[in-house]
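User: Let's play a game. I give you a shape written as tokens, and you guess the letters that built it. Ready? Here's round one.
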């Protein structure tokens, strides 16, 4: 079950520089997201058009790694068997999902990548 008191956190994929941006560099102003790139002198802001925002699900994998939208994960069925290929985490109709079901009904074994950094891990 997903904790309704979970911490609300985000990360973002920088579509220009092809790298993951973590908090505390992501900011929201007037409902729009942007991040401050600390690598640039004086900092550089990027608009929400230049990043793909992903929310923390409130869950951790077996190694204690936070699970975010866009993560590629190994998933276990209720009987203990493992999906034959990795699945990605997404948000749809008000719920976090993985594969063909709700994330809350699945057991995430391990985060192995993200759809932005490791798209080759997902089979079509």
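Assistant: Ready! My guess for every position:
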């Amino acid at each position: 079950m997903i904790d309704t008191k979970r911490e609300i956190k985000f990360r973002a994929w920088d579509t220009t520089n092809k790298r993951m941006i973590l908090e505390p560099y992501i900011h929201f102003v007037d409902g729009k997201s942007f991040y401050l790139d600390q690598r640039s002198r004086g900092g550089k802001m990027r608009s929400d058009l230049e990043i793909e925002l992903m929310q923390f699900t409130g869950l951790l994998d077996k190694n204690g790694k936070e699970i975010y939208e866009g993560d590629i994960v190994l998933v276990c069925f209720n009987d203990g068997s493992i999906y034959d290929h990795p699945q990605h985490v997404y948000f749809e109709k008000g719920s976090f999902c993985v594969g063909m079901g709700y994330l809350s009904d699945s057991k995430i074994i391990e985060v192995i990548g993200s759809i932005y950094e490791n798209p080759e891990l997902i089979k079509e």
